[in-house]
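TASK: fixed-backbone design
INPUT:
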């Protein structure tokens, strides 16, 4: 929601269209540009239309065997089936997760599956997922699902899933481990219904993975032409792509004003924690912390200017998902905080940075140490890190 609000607020679509029109005008400005880049935008738009249609269809199947979006047991059945097939290849030719170096990790995850699901709930969830997919075009699915979905019956799905779960051996962790070590023939001879079900889905997914290689290459080829045009137009003056790289972002501690009459200061304090106390989640303050605040027992962690414990602070750095837990350093290289979030108005930063609104939230390291020593009584940790 914050991203959409931010996009509308700055008219991000209009800004992108303006940049694209600038590129198109540059391409049309002379014959050389036309010959080199004349069809680039049109070809990219045609590719994206094809790609988005393909992605929608593929995501239905990929999501169905994903432990994140579907049944845990079904995802495990698919993982085992893939592992057994991949293990028939030379180690170097396998997908990395199925290589020898990752084999023990795969087995460990297999053992720990029980911690992440309840069998009865998993069964109900698979029924729910299949019913949600039932009304999609039959052409989106492999043969075994076409047969099921063509019945257009919720009861048929209930019966189908109940049969899978009633007869499968996959609910037994020891059986799952044994299956991982089997040959394809041994696995097929089990006639396990969940394995047979995912085998039908995997045939389609294998085709998708192979097709993806050429599609991804096509995308890279088109992107190369597009970026060559942009670089030439900008005379090489364009920021490098920092995706998937280690980043160092810098800024200063500073509050902001997201709207007229609203001001967010740079610092919050323990006083604010007490003011938010409601007695229920998520604003339930532990009694010990209340007592420490009441007694002003802040130790060496009190901020003299605030006459309180500073809990968090805003800064003008730019972060994204995955940066949580990163150290916030001052100009001397000393750790003063730990990043854990960004403000509501900053979430658009993945697409466009608005400097006057871009703020990262760091927990103040003094609050971390205060909680460690005074609240948790873990002063041995403070000593261990040499403070």
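OUTPUT:
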């Amino acid at each position: 929601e914050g991203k959409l609000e931010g996009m509308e607020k700055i008219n991000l679509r209009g800004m992108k269209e303006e940049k694209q029109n600038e590129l198109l005008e540059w391409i049309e400005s002379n014959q050389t540009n036309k010959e080199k880049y004349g069809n680039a935008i049109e070809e990219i738009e045609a590719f994206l239309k094809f790609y988005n249609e393909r992605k929608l269809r593929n995501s239905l199947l990929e999501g169905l065997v994903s432990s994140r979006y579907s049944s845990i047991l079904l995802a495990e059945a698919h993982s085992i089936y893939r592992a057994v097939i991949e293990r028939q290849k030379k180690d170097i030719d396998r997908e990395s997760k199925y290589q020898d170096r990752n084999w023990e990790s795969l087995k460990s995850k297999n053992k720990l599956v029980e911690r992440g699901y309840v069998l009865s709930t998993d069964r109900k969830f698979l029924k729910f997922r299949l019913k949600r997919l039932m009304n999609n075009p039959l052409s989106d699915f492999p043969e075994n699902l076409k047969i099921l979905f063509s019945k257009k019956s919720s009861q048929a799905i209930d019966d189908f899933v109940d049969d899978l779960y009633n007869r499968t051996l996959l609910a037994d962790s020891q059986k799952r481990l044994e299956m991982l070590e089997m040959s394809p023939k041994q696995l097929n001879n089990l006639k396990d219904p969940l394995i047979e079900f995912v085998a039908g889905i995997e045939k389609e997914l294998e085709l998708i993975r192979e097709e993806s290689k050429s599609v991804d290459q096509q995308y890279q080829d088109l992107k190369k032409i597009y970026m060559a045009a942009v670089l030439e137009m900008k005379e090489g003056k364009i920021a490098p792509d920092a995706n998937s790289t280690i980043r160092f972002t810098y800024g200063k501690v500073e509050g902001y004003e997201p709207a007229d009459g609203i001001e967010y200061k740079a610092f919050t304090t323990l006083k604010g924690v007490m003011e938010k106390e409601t007695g229920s989640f998520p604003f339930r303050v532990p009694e010990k912390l209340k007592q420490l605040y009441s007694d002003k027992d802040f130790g060496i962690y009190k901020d003299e200017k605030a006459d309180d414990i500073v809990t968090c602070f805003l800064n003008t750095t730019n972060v994204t998902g995955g940066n949580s837990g990163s150290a916030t350093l001052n100009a001397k290289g000393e750790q003063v905080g730990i990043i854990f979030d960004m403000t509501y108005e900053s979430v658009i930063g993945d697409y466009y940075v608005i400097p006057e609104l871009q703020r990262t939230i760091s927990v103040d390291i003094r609050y971390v140490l205060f909680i460690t020593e005074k609240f948790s009584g873990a002063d041995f940790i403070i000593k261990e890190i040499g403070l």
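COMMENT: The chain has a mean pLDDT of 92.
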